[in-house]
UniProtKB/TrEMBL annotation:
Pfam families (alphabetical): Sua5_C, Sua5_yciO_yrdC
Protein name: Threonylcarbamoyl-AMP synthase
GO biological process entries: regulation of translational fidelity; tRNA processing
GO molecular function terms noted in the UniProt entry: ATP binding; double-stranded RNA binding; L-threonylcarbamoyladenylate synthase; tRNA binding
Its biological purpose: Required for the formation of a threonylcarbamoyl group on adenosine at position 37 (t(6)A37) in tRNAs that read codons beginning with adenine.
Organism: Mesorhizobium temperatum
Length: 325
């Protein structure tokens, strides 16, 4: 049974604030994906996030801030982190930094780590944090292991029976989660490719990103994640009869006429458009009832790295799924 109210962003502020003040969660639009937000200093609210998502407790959450002053109260910035924050915030970049001791963040948010992931979102989220005066912990607004939601309707379909309010800001503009970068001793490590291309970050930082992960640091890094109900087959040169096809660019894979359903991420081969369409198109094809979604090859440059990352996780064997407690 759906209990969530869906309110347009323009009229949702007071209701959202009241729920957050009361230790409840609210689904909010950001420029990347919808977030399931709670006051990051309120343990009851943060615990609700894990309960609603069915998320394993060891996964730390991103703390979202309204401005650089709030960020500086939570974490220790070196000159490189400051430069990246000034260049890309507000926007789809998350910085993992040393925590400032006594910052008031509930330990459930950081899963007890001595680092904290920070991001400054655009739009309604940023305004909400400024009004609340405290950071918001917000993972993507989807059940653990499922596709991230890029519309209010997708949030309501997944979590609508478990939350009170979905703030509707329309379809998100970026469509992929933020890029996560860890900064240690002047070095940058890419923990998760996302809405800002690695090349852009390297250009602003003046240093190369390293990609070698030491163990699982961001659960987006678990093999199976972002999984639709159907099986996913990437890099498909041919489409088998009855498969759904997720296309990219002007040319179609062989046998496309026999596809059970078809969506094109971008007719013109534009990777930004493809990123924005990715999750909604996967959900559409999943709803078509096809057992398998074949995906045409996507180039790896720019946002293609993050798109391929999400697709390969969706295609990974499901027994590795990060599906909660
Ligand atoms: O675009 C986004 O980033 C969206 C919107 C809502 O802001 N949020 C999002 O959150 O994708 P979530 O929780 O689905 O992914 C956050 C990732 C997780 O993979 C988590 O492990 C990682 O950030 N993370 C959080 N804190 C960390 C830390 N201290 N060190 C390393 N990774 C961390
Ligand atoms: Mg997520």
């Amino acid at each position: 049974m759906r209990v969530a109210e869906i309110l347009a962003a323009g009229e949702a502020m007071e209701r959202a604030l009241a729920l957050l003040e009361g230790g409840d969660v609210v689904a909010i639009p950001t420029e990347t994906v919808y977030g399931l937000a709670a006051d990051a200093t309120n343990g009851v609210g943060v615990a609700r996030i894990f309960e609603v998502k069915g998320r394993p407790r060891f996964n730390p959450l991103i703390a979202h801030v309204a401005d650089l002053a709030m960020a500086a109260r939570l974490a220790l910035f070196d000159p490189l982190s400051k430069r990246l924050a000034q260049t890309f915030w507000p926007g789809p970049l998350t910085l993992v930094l040393p925590q400032r001791p006594g910052n008031g963040i509930h330990p459930l948010v950081t899963a007890g780590l001595d680092t904290i992931a920070l991001r400054m979102p655009k739009g309604f989220g940023g305004e909400l944090i400024a009004r609340l005066g405290r950071p918001l912990a917000a993972p993507s607004a989807n059940s653990s292991g499922r596709i991230s939601a890029t519309t209010a309707e997708a949030v309501a379909a997944d979590l609508g029976s478990r939350i009170r309010l979905v703030v509707d800001g329309g379809a998100t503009s970026v469509g992929l989660e933020s890029t996560i970068v860890k900064i240690e001793g002047g070095k940058l490590r890419l923990l998760r490719p996302g809405g800002i291309a690695a090349e852009e970050i390297e250009a602003a930082a003046g240093v190369k990103l390293s990609r070698g992960a030491a163990g699982i640091e961001a659960p987006g890094m678990l093999a199976s994640h972002y999984a639709p109900g159907a099986a996913v087959r990437v890099n498909a040169a041919k489409v088998a009869k009855g498969e759904a096809l997720l296309a990219f660019g002007p040319r179609r894979a062989e046998g496309w006429q026999g596809a059970a359903a078809l969506r094109n991420l971008s007719e013109t081969g534009d990777l930004r458009e493809a990123a924005a369409n990715l999750f909604a198109h996967m959900q559409d094809l999943d709803r078509s009832g096809a057992k398998t979604i074949a995906v045409e090859p996507i180039p790896f440059d720019g946002l293609g790295e993050a798109i391929n990352d999400r697709l390969s996780r969706a295609a990974a064997p499901r027994d590795k799924i990060d599906a909660g407690p």
